[in-house]
Amino acid sequence: MHPFGFELCELPPQAESLRSEVREFLRAELGEATPAQRAGSWGGFDPEFSRKVGTRGWIGMTWPKRYGGHERSALERYVVLEEMLAAGAPVAAHWIADRQSGPLLLRFGTEAQRQRFLPAITRGELSFAIGMSEPDSGSDLASIRTRAERVPGGYRVNGAKVWTSNAHRAHYMIALFRTHSDPANKHAGLSQFLVDTRSPGITIRPIVDLSGSHHFNEVVFQDVFVPEDLRVGEEGAGWMQVTTELALERSGPERYLSSFALLVELIRAVSKEPGERAAVALGRLVAHLATLRQMSLSIAGMLEAGQNPNLEAALVKDLGTTFEQEIPEVVHALLGVEPTSGSGTDLQQLLGYLTQQAPSFSLRGGTREILRGIIARGLGLR
Ligand SMILES: Cc1cc2nc3c(=O)[nH]c(=O)nc-3n(C[C@H](O)[C@H](O)[C@H](O)COP(=O)(O)OP(=O)(O)OC[C@H]3O[C@@H](n4cnc5c(N)ncnc54)[C@H](O)[C@@H]3O)c2cc1C
């Protein structure tokens, strides 16, 4: 059996001094945001806020300066991310580009693509969506059927993507399409493309979730032209690239901080006179949080060292989403508060929002069962 590679990782002093700078910025920007607004965090799409974050130099922090980046460490970036999430900042307009689209272009994009897209991302001006899942292909991503056929100067795309978060607001989508069919090898013949979401032939239809919010969509492609120079990487290399991208998608603090606002409210509600039952429950939650943070930080350390912590990232996401999902249940059990939507106290609304959102935590970015399969394979158990 192969072991996990977690190692204790300390934040360097420059990362800690950055923390107070970020906190001050967030205090001024978020002001009186309610707990329920803060719980939205990486679902909150606010281009103006993202531009301000870009001006501060907190997007593309680790990227080369020649592409608008700041050549800071992955650990400094980690501090910015955890402060943004803990405060409930509306980061969605730059989150995907900073986390995965930009790094993907840095690794596999052409020089022209890097120069065209990366500086605008670091300024917080360009937002991205992820075009992977399709109506019949989620966990089994390699079975996607949306086709990109070669035509003079580029490709013609036909098919549909689904659950595409913020496709209706993002400027570009990095999409995985089938450029070649080989029934004997479904992982071959996939390629990634930068797709302008306003291209003729694209129809974006809203999908409304359980809580009545519109954040994801169905995106239909009908004879959409994508120029050759917007293909990312080699034709047919899409599977290798998309698995690299998924590792970036699974390793950050967003995978255990989604219910953090509710944990804070729980501590506020019971901390004066907790009683034994609440003290035990809170102690357990806080111990889990501290351990998850240490594991997630360790992954940031591995990224900093140029390693590829796929296995560890899958574990943190699985444990982290279990933790996030548990918090609304604990609050309900301890405080007896009924969740509400649109009315009631701050705590009731926060509980209502997170009770409705929590089931999706272990679906988005790869389901629990798929992650456990990855972990078993990584440990050499299957
Ligand atoms: C809030 C949210 C946002 C999302 N945003 C995006 C986005 O921006 N872009 C994008 O491309 N996608 C997005 N998704 C889609 C997400 O990636 C998929 O929902 C996920 O990968 C699961 O795919 P599926 O929905 O087709 O379910 P399925 O793959 O059909 O799975 C159904 C169930 O079967 C289980 N299952 C499937 N295969 C196996 C197996 N081999 N072994 C054991 N169990 C299995 C799954 O774990 C799951 O419980 C989003 C989803 C959510 C909930």
Description of the molecule:
The chain is of the alpha+beta class. 48% of the residues lie in helices and 14% in strands. The chain has helices spanning 13-30, 35-40, 47-55, 74-87, 92-108, 111-122, 238-250, 260-270, 275-304, 310-335, 346-361, 368-378, and strands at 128-131, 147-151, 154-162, 172-178, 190-196, 202-208, 214-227, 231-232. The strands form two sheets. It has a four-stranded mixed beta sheet with strand order 1-4-5-8, with helices on one face. A four-stranded antiparallel beta sheet has the order 2-3-7-6, with no helix packed on it. A hairpin with a 5-residue loop joins strand 6 (202-208) and strand 7 (214-227). Helix 1 (13-30) packs parallel to helix 4 (74-87). The longest helix has 30 residues, at 275-304. It is globular and about 70 Å long. The model has no long low-confidence stretch (mean pLDDT 94). Flavin-adenine dinucleotide binds at residues 129-133, 138-139, 163-165, 216, 360, 363-364, 366-367, 369-370, 373.
